[in-house]
């Protein structure tokens, strides 16, 4: 089932997610719905707060990037890189900070350069509640960091300079009022 994505200004996007356990109601259905919602919006990541749940769950699928010539040198790593992250905790961020033009399904039509460290070590449970501790680099780390921010109540716009924040303030206001053209289901703040 395709769920509406919460728009900028919804208070749920600022909540820190709670840990869940393997008995969380209808967990596999929720995960399936999140992937379906993400795909219908042409996204590569989606976090539970974006669909109105303050829990520590996000999904990513960067497989489409394997076809992008910008990622030719890592296309094998990106191919079939589809993961579920439950109760994730970033243990370490390292390496050079690098800029990348980020966007967000909750903040349509806003894209800005964000600096993030190049490598992360993250601990998480998969959809079967198997615990993993893994290291990721490149665009995979970037997407994970972006979605991880969501379960921490942080949006990519929080990483912008004061000047950039001023420049996008009008767009953000319009989004929170529902004044945006999108081709996917979205729920705007009341």
UniProtKB/TrEMBL annotation:
InterPro entries listed in its UniProt record: Peptide_deformylase, Peptide_deformylase_sf
Reactions accelerated catalytically: N-terminal N-formyl-L-methionyl-[peptide] + H2O = N-terminal L-methionyl-[peptide] + formate
SUPFAM superfamilies named in the record: Peptide deformylase
CDD domains (alphabetical): Pep_deformylase
Textual note on the cofactor: Binds 1 Fe(2+) ion.
EC code: 3.5.1.88
Active site: 147
Residue intervals passing through the bilayer: none
Coiled coil: none
List of residues binding Fe cation: 104, 146, 150
PANTHER family linked to this entry: PEPTIDE DEFORMYLASE
Function: Removes the formyl group from the N-terminal Met of newly synthesized proteins. Requires at least a dipeptide for an efficient rate of reaction. N-terminal L-methionine is a prerequisite for activity but the enzyme has broad specificity at other positions.
Protein name per the record: Peptide deformylase
Species per Swiss-Prot/TrEMBL record: Chryseobacterium populi
């Amino acid at each position: 089932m395709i769920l509406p994505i919460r728009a900028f200004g919804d208070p749920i996007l600022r909540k820190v997610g709670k840990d869940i356990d393997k008995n969380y109601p209808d967990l596999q259905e929720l995960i399936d719905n999140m992937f379906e919602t993400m795909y219908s919006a042409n996204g590569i990541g989606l976090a539970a707060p974006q669909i109105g749940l303050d829990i520590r769950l996000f999904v990513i699928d960067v497989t489409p990037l394997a076809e992008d010539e910008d990622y030719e040198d890592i296309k094998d790593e990106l191919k079939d890189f589809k993961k579920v992250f439950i109760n994730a905790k970033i243990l370490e961020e390292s390496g050079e900070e690098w800029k990348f033009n980020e966007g967000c399904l909750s903040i349509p039509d806003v894209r800005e350069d964000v600096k993030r460290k190049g490598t992360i070590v993250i601990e998480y449970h998969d959809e079967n509640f198997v615990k993993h501790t893994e290291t990721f680099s490149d665009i995979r780390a970037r997407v994970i960091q972006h979605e991880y921010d969501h379960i921490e109540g942080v949006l990519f716009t929080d990483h912008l300079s004061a000047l950039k924040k001023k420049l996008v303030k009008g767009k953000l206001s319009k989004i929170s009022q529902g004044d945006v053209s999108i081709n996917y289901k979205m729920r705007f703040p009341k």
